[in-house]
């Protein structure tokens, strides 16, 4: 018999504040929590949680090692993690990991603003928590100032400008996060090189087995990465998203077989995982502006 795992569902900001034992927030759609103000007795360990609003966690420092992708790395300068509504996460087993700040805001806060329509363009809300944004000292200073500005605004009396100011501050925070993620993809060469090497090996294994190429979802599952993170990382470093990167690998392998073997186009298509040679030929022409046979003629 399969045992059902209960999910603790938090529906609104007021419920969250109440369960953390904090003073009622002046604004029902947004709150900023300093976990130093939360009693350890209010923090449940290892609980499965779903919230109906956005969360941006900011840890000025990390203690020990932090999981990042497939490995563990030391980050002493702090970082950010992002959650969108309905994502399910586990609270830490160790209450010492409850540190730093967390900004919570409901979709209704931004609904009538341009950000309400564009927030899905910030791909990091679809990353796994382990794919967090790790900050340099300078970047940490910028984020600290932004969180401080939001905290100051939340302590002011609510007026007709409060929501405009808060939404603009959130948007600025998200735009800086976009910039810093782009930097991270570039500067964390060792980590990203390992990911790309693993991806290339995975594709080579499929080519060797002459099996149907895996979907993006399957690739990401084997690499233990979210689909959005892998696609954003590849696009930043190679200019290609994950699907395009896979297709490029197929084309390069096809060029190799067309130029070095006597296999027919149908045989090559089969070895590359295509059920129909027409699909292979269509993709090859789209990527190279030549048919497979026209490409082969260049080597005869």
Biggest sheet strand line-up: 2-9-4-7-10
User: What order do the SSEs take from the amino end to the carboxyl end, as H and E?
Assistant: EHEEEEEEEEHHEHHHHHHHHH
Kindly state the number of beta strands. 10
Uncertain residue ranges: 64-75
Shape: elongated
The radius of gyration computed from the alpha-carbon positions, rounded to a whole number of angstroms, is: 24 Å
Tell me roughly what share of residues is in helical segments: 40-55%
Write up this protein.
By secondary structure, this protein is of the alpha+beta class. It has helices at residues 13-19, 107-110, 114-118, 137-155, 162-187, 189-209, 216-223, 227-238, 242-260, 265-271, 277-288, 292-297, and strands at 8-10, 30-34, 48-51, 54-59, 65-68, 71-74, 79-83, 88-90, 101-105, 133-134. The strands form 3 sheets. Strands 2-9-4-7-10 form a 5-stranded antiparallel beta sheet. β5 and β6 form a beta hairpin. α4 packs antiparallel against α5, α9 (242-260) crosses α11 and α10 crosses α11 (277-288). The radius of gyration is 24 Å and the shape is elongated. The chain starts with 7 loop residues before the first strand and ends with a helix.
């Amino acid at each position: 018999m399969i045992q059902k795992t209960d999910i603790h569902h938090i529906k609104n900001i007021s419920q969250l504040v109440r369960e953390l034992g904090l003073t009622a927030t002046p604004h029902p759609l947004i709150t900023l929590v300093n976990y130093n103000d939360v009693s350890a007795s209010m923090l449940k360990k290892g609980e499965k949680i779903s919230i109906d609003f956005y969360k941006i966690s900011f840890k000025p420092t990390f203690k020990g090692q932090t999981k990042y992708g497939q490995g563990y790395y030391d980050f002493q300068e702090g970082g950010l993690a992002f959650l969108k509504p309905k994502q399910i996460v586990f609270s830490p087993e160790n209450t010492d990991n409850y540190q730093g700040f967390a900004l919570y805001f409901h979709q209704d806060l931004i609904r009538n603003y341009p950000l309400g329509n564009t927030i899905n363009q910030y791909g990091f809300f679809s990353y796994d928590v382990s794919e967090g944004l790790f900050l340099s000292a300078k970047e940490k200073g910028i984020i600290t100032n932004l969180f401080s500005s939001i905290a100051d605004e939340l302590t002011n009396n609510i007026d007709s400008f409060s929501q405009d100011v808060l939404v603009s501050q959130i948007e600025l925070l998200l735009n800086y996060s976009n910039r810093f993620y782009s930097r991270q993809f570039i500067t964390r060469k060792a980590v990203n090189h390992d990911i790309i090497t693993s991806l290339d090996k995975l594709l080579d294994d499929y080519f060797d087995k002459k099996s149907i190429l895996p979907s993006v979802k399957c690739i990401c599952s084997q690499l233990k990465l979210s689909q959005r993170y892998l696609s954003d990382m590849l696009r930043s470093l190679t200019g290609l998203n994950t699907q395009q990167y896979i297709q490029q690998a197929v084309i390069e392998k096809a060029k190799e077989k067309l130029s070095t073997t006597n296999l027919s186009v149908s045989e090559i298509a089969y070895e590359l995982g295509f059920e129909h040679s027409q699909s292979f030929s269509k993709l090859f022409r789209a990527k190279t502006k030549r048919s497979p046979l026209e490409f082969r003629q260049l080597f005869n």
